[in-house]
């Protein structure tokens, strides 16, 4: 299995950005953990980051034929982007939505996700561990539901 991990806007600043909310690990450290967990699960993990909505749309399109599932933290685009939602619906690849923070404990505008209705499920609130749990959930889904 080959999986695409997509990090959206401002996540390149992890570690320095509001550490009380997002924790002290950098994006590179999270990516290293994902790589290790990918090896444990015997899957290939490809990681991309962009602050640009259109780049993320392109990356979702390009996943078709290359990857079997997507793990995405769309950052603030979660709450604004019909385009990202439509891209995920268009490629129809199993997608797990992750957030470091628990978006439902925060401001009202973070309570709605455009991604959620086109995702298998969502993991929110476990810090960097959300990504690991999300990867495990995606692999579990692909191995039990799709093979
Ligand atoms: C986030 C939550 C979003 O509301 C926020 O805009 C982010 C990060 C998270 O991982 O907790 O950039 O997706």
From TrEMBL:
- Give the active-site positions: 22, 99
Matching PROSITE patterns: DEHYDROQUINASE_II (PS01029)
User: What pathway annotation does it carry?
Assistant: Metabolic intermediate biosynthesis; chorismate biosynthesis; chorismate from D-erythrose 4-phosphate and phosphoenolpyruvate: step 3/7
One BP term from GO: amino acid biosynthetic process
Report the EC number(s), separated by commas if there are several: 4.2.1.10
Q: Which InterPro entries match?
A: DHquinase_II, DHquinase_II_CS, DHquinase_II_sf
Q: Which UniProt keywords apply?
A: Amino-acid biosynthesis, Aromatic amino acid biosynthesis, Lyase
Catalyses:
3-dehydroquinate = 3-dehydroshikimate + H2O
Pfam families, alphabetized:
DHquinase_II
Q: What SUPFAM superfamilies does the record point to?
A: Type II 3-dehydroquinate dehydratase (SSF52304)
The highest taxon in the source lineage is Bacteria
- Site (Transition state stabilizer): give the residues: 17
A molecular function annotated in GO for this UniProt entry is: 3-dehydroquinate dehydratase activity
* Coiled coil regions in record: none
What is this protein for, i.e. what is its function? Catalyzes a trans-dehydration via an enolate intermediate.
Please describe the quaternary structure of this protein: Homododecamer.
Q: Name the protein family.
A: Belongs to the type-II 3-dehydroquinase family.
Q: What is this protein called?
A: 3-dehydroquinate dehydratase
Organism of provenance: Chlorogloeopsis fritschii PCC 6912
What lineage is this protein's organism placed in? Bacteria, Bacillati, Cyanobacteriota, Cyanophyceae, Nostocales
